[in-house]
Amino acid sequence: MTEPTTETQLETELDGLEVDAPLVGIVMGSKSDMPVMEKAAKELDARGIRNEIRVMSAHRDPDLVAEYSKNARMRGLKVIIAGAGLAAALPGVVAAHTDLPVIGVPLTSSMTVAGGLDALLSIAQMPPGVPVATVGVDNPKNAAALAARILSL
C-alpha cells in the first residue's frame, strides 16, 4: 500500500513541470479599478511575464479572496499584486492567506482622502507577520517592475 501524496510533495512535482501558468496574480477590489491596474499587466506582458487579472473584494467576497490566496502557490503564482483604495484591505487580506510576496498598490477614487493617503497608509501599516510591499499611489507599473525583480532572484 502506498502512502498518500502530501501537498508539499505535489508542489515539488509540479515545480518541475513546464506549463504556461501565470507567475503573477493581479487582483483588485472593484471593476472600476481595472483601467489603472491593467497597467501592471501591460508592464508584465512587455517583460514577457505571464499574469492573470481578477476582481475580488476583501469586504464583499472575503471567502473568494482567502481561497484565491491560499491556492496561489499551488497554481504556480510567485507574486501577487493587489490594488485597493479607501480602506484598502485587499493587500493585507491576501498577505494573511499566502506566504507569497504581496505588493500593494494604493488606488484613488472619487471618495479618496488626501489624494490616496488613506489607501497608502492602510496598505503600508500591516500588522507584524503580514508583510505587504507598497508602491506609490496609482502606480501599478512600479508594482510590476518590483514583481519582475522578485522573479529574477
From TrEMBL:
Q: Which of the seven top EC classes does this enzyme belong to?
A: isomerase
* Pfam families hit by this protein: AIRC
| Single biological process term from Gene Ontology | 'de novo' IMP biosynthetic process
**Any idea which positions bind substrate?**
S30, D33, R60
PurE domain: which residues?
22-153
HAMAP family xrefs: PurE_classI
PANTHER family, per database record? PHOSPHORIBOSYLAMINOIMIDAZOLE CARBOXYLASE (PTHR23046:SF2), PHOSPHORIBOSYLAMINOIMIDAZOLE CARBOXYLASE CATALYTIC SUBUNIT (PTHR23046)
Q: Which family does it belong to?
A: Belongs to the AIR carboxylase family. Class I subfamily.
According to its UniProt entry, the function of this protein is described as: Catalyzes the conversion of N5-carboxyaminoimidazole ribonucleotide (N5-CAIR) to 4-carboxy-5-aminoimidazole ribonucleotide (CAIR).
This chain belongs to which protein, by name?
N5-carboxyaminoimidazole ribonucleotide mutase
Organism the protein comes from: Solirubrobacter phytolaccae
Q: Which gene encodes it?
A: purE
